[in-house]
Write a structure and sequence with these properties.
The protein is mostly helical. It has one domain. 73% of the residues lie in helices and 2% in strands. It has six helices and two strands, in the order H-E-E-H-H-H-H-H. A hairpin with an 8-residue loop joins strand 1 and strand 2. Helix 1 runs parallel beside helix 3. It starts with a helix and ends with a helix. The relative contact order is 0.14.
Length: 175
Amino acid sequence: MSPNTRRWVISGVLGLFVSWAIGGVIFPALSALLGMMVRLAPGMRDAAISWPGPAMDVLPFFAIGLQAMVVIAVTLILARVADERRRVGWGCLAIGGAILLNGIVLLAVTGVLGWLLDRNPGGASGGEASAGFFLLLLGLPYAFLCIAMLVGGAVLLRRRPPSSAQGSMEQSAPR
């Protein structure tokens, strides 16, 4: 495979992964922007509000269009990176950031984040077990995957130490 084709294939696959990971952020964000989800008070669940008009019909297509734009943007940005190792590192960082953002939005939309941030000194509200189970079931895999992608991307982006062949040539060169 030619280096140019390889560059575009790697960038495109990483762009698809970033778009897939950011997909859980786009739809709730668009719903909130259009006023279809309203947070009544901190800690309460989001209430769906009926939207008169074509916004509800167009929303899925608009979300898919935004995901396609994310694929194109990430592919074009990653294709500009010259080194393949750094390209994959930047892609891993982008995927890790998208997963982190997706996890935060998931916790916020479900109300678990509001429950965690609500400091109620009055005693137990009965939601501790369900929130703990939810965090264990959904939060832990997001956290592990996010940390793995961010650490893997950072490791791939750090500078390579000079190889032993380069070091031996520098030592044998006359000064």
